[in-house]
Design brief:
alpha+beta, Aspartate Aminotransferase, domain 1, four-stranded antiparallel beta sheet, 2 helices, 21% strand, transferase, EC 2.6.1.1, aminotransferase, L-aspartate:2-oxoglutarate aminotransferase activity
């Protein structure tokens, strides 16, 4: 995890072997929308800029759990 510049956000780095598009699709099946503008994937980078300034603590917990479930589902594809 690295720092994202500007606002309340974190930079989530993933194994470059996973597809962030597939991760976003798996998340959306569980009502978590990841806009394509927050996905950064190329040969050297596989990361999501996750902004959380508008979320309360309970919402952040739900998002993190949903994202983890989507990640696990993506690994099993």
């Amino acid at each position: 995890m690295a720092n994202a510049s500007g606002g309340l956000a974190i930079w989530l780095e993933f194994n470059p072997k996973i597809s962030l598009v597939k991760l976003a699709e798996a998340a959306e099946k569980n009502d978590l929308y990841l806009p394509k503008t927050s996905l950064y994937q190329n040969r050297d980078t596989c990361a999501i800029r996750f902004g959380f300034g508008h979320l309360n603590e309970e919402e952040i917990e739900i998002v993190v759990k949903t994202l983890k479930n989507a990640y696990d589902a993506t690994l099993n594809l």
